[in-house]
Amino acid sequence: MTNTNTASTFFGLGIAPKVLELLERMKFKTPTPIQHKAIPLAVEGKDIMGIAQTGTGKTLAFAIPMVQRLAQGTSNGLVIVPTRELAIQVDETVNKVAQPFGLKTVVLIGGASMEDQIRSIKRGARIIIATPGRLIDHVQRGTVRLNSTNILVLDEADRMFDMGFAPQIEQIMQEVPKDRQTMLFSATMPRDIMSMAARHMKLPINVEVAPQGTAAERVSQEMFVVRREMKNVLLAKLLTQYRGSVLLFSRTKHGARKLTRDIKEMGHSAAEIHSDRTLAQRKASLEGFKVGRYRVLVATDIAARGIDVKGIELVINFDLPDDAENYIHRIGRTGRAGMEGRAISIATPDQADQVQAIERIMRSEIKLLQHPDVETQTLYRAPSGSSSGGRKGPGVSRSFVNKTFARGRRRFR
Fold first, then answer.
1. Domain ranges of the chain
2. End-to-end CA distance of the chain
3. How far is CA 93 from CA 97, 135, 374, 405, in A?
């Protein structure tokens, strides 16, 4: 008889007994698919290229092997992430595993005190969690030396490349020893990341737990198409219908500020998080959202991968993202770790091309709905020669839009 019990526990993954005891005390009983596949390879010191969507437990997939290996010697670990928010989130998770073994961490991000960071480094931090720019600042000042880094993790690598961090990552690669373990985790694996991996990793093993471009399996996705001036009206209806926590995405920081004011006028508690907010303000907004002080968190794409909050009921794309891939990362904020979630997008009639780009990446159609109290529209492609936002003529309807609309044409419940 085949024993399948170990497949649903951390036992048998090469994890040391003391680490297993810690996971048991922390109530971590069942590994996620990325943890189940990556941990056995990582504890052996193998280089890994992990492809998994947001909310699948990637942080523990590299934190457990890193802590186990660092606890056996005197070398250091380095985790590079794209945003300040993600650095803070990663530190919270890594600390849970590292602290019981006497391993100190330090977060090196912009917007925080350089002096405080230097003091933490001098106190013997063994694991650095950093954004590329601030880490290079420390390296250039001589306050951080990376020559004892034995384990390097690049988390959300595709996002770092999207944000233009490729030169900084290359510079960091020159500072760390060539004889090291490298783990790269990403939701997608574009060509430039593959090229970097070929230059800087030793025979990396691919670990993929979901096809590239797929969203969280348990997230239902719906879309309303309305005139631009009706978006706020629809938003008010949605916030009344859904009573749980809501993460709402705006395309611009100016739009985020305005939406936060509008939502408060609708009678809901709301906070905003975008690049114009200081680090302290962003942390306060995120913490307030976590504890329920704010029901709605309005964010730009800076937060698409930097928010790890359990129990977000609804993600609303008030504006469609400029980059279709960001749609995946946005909706991945709900339905995390196997929980059910819901994502609703609001499009305008002239955004057929943007919707099609998202559906192409998703490899599926998004259900178009009608609302009983708000007049919905049909997506159309602007006639040849006119601007994408043009309103001349009825436009050219696309067959995939018509089929989707017909299938999803039902009363809004």
1. 5-208, 219-407
2. 48
3. 7, 20, 43, 42
The partner residues of 220 in beta bridges, in order of sequence, read: 342
The distance of Cα 252 from the centroid of its chain, to the nearest Å, equals: 18
DSSP class per residue in 228-293: GGGHHHHHHHHHHH--S-EEEE-SSHHHHHHHHHHHHHTT--EEEESTTS-HHHHHHHHHHHHHTS
Q: How far, in Å, CA of 38 to CA of 275, rounded?
A: 33
What is the CATH code of the structural domain delimited by 219-407? 3.40.50.300
> What is the value of pTM for the model shown?
0.70
- pLDDT of 404 reads 42
Two structure tokens written together for 199: 């230059």
Q: Look at the alpha carbons of 395, 398, 403, 404 in this order and tell me if their dihedral is positive or negative.
A: negative
Superfamily of domain 5-208: P-loop containing nucleotide triphosphate hydrolases (3.40.50.300)
* pLDDT at res. 337: 57
160 contacts 185 by C-beta, under 8 angstroms: no
Q: What is residue 35's predicted lDDT score, i.e. its pLDDT?
A: 94
107 CB-near residues (< 8 Å, 6+ apart): 87, 88, 91, 117, 129, 130
Burial class of 296 by CB neighbour count within 10 A (0 to 12, 13 to 18, 19+): buried
- Burial label, 94 (beta-carbon count in 10 A; 0-12, 13-18, 19+): buried
In the prediction, which pLDDT does 52 show? 80
List beta partners, residue 66.
none
Choose among 119, 128, 120, 123: nearest CA to 147. 128
Nearest to 241 by CA among 342, 163, 94: 342
Nearest-angstrom CA–CA distance, 35 and 207? 10
Below-50 pLDDT ranges, the chain = 1-6, 384-413
Distance CA 313, CA 214 (A): 20
* Amino acid symbol at 184: L
Q: What pLDDT score was predicted for residue 407? A: 43
| Spatial separation of the C-alpha atoms in residues 65 and 67, rounded to whole Å | 6
Question: What confidence score (pLDDT) does residue 216 get?
Answer: 55
Cα–Cα distance measured from residue 40 to residue 411, given in angstroms and rounded to the nearest whole number: 49
